[in-house]
Design a protein that fits this description.
Strand content: under 5%
Number of strands: 0
Structural class: mainly alpha
Shape: elongated
Radius of gyration: 14 Å
Number of helices: 1
Distance between the termini: 32 Å
Largest sheet: none
Helix content: 40-55%
Order of helices and strands: H
């Protein structure tokens, strides 16, 4: 778990299976997720201020 300012975890990263290097698999997952993480917090706290990604319901 990664914690930040809110009462809930900022991120929960896990690797269920990796033949060679599970730590590298978690690091790769974080590399993809990290740039988006703040947008998820914003969406939880103030959905109207969150970025729109053009998916149904984001009008």
């Amino acid at each position: 778990l990664i914690v930040d300012r809110e009462a809930w975890p900022y991120a929960s990263l896990r690797c269920d299976w990796a033949e060679d290097d599970p730590i590298a698999a978690i690091a790769a997952a974080w590399t993809v997720y990290a740039p988006q993480a703040d947008a998820y917090v914003t969406r939880a706290l103030d959905p109207t201020a969150a970025p729109s990604y053009g998916v149904p319901g984001d009008e």
